[in-house]
Amino acid sequence: MNDYRHLADRIADDITAGRLKPGERLPPQRAFARRRGIAGSTAGRVYAELVRRGLVVGEVGRGTFVRAAAPAGSGRALVEAATAAPVNLELNYPSVPGQSELLATTFAPLLRPDVLAEALRPAAATGTIAAREAAAALLATPGWRPAPAQVLFTGNGRQAIAAALASLVRPGGRVGAEALTYPVVKEIAARLGITLVPLAMDEEGPRPESVAAAHRTAPLAALYLQPTLHNPTSATTSPERRRQLARLAIDLNIPVVEDRIWSFLMGGTGEAADDPFAAHAPGLTHVVDSLSKRVAPGLTVGFAVVPEARVEAVAAAVRSGGWSAGRFAVEAAVRWIADGTVERLVAAKRADAAHRQRILGEELRGFAVRSDPRACFAWWELPAPWRADTFTAAAAAHGIAITPGPAFAVDPNRTPDAVRLGLASAPEPDLRRALRTLAGVARAAR
Question: What percentage of the chain exceeds 90 in pLDDT?
Answer without folding.
Answer: 66
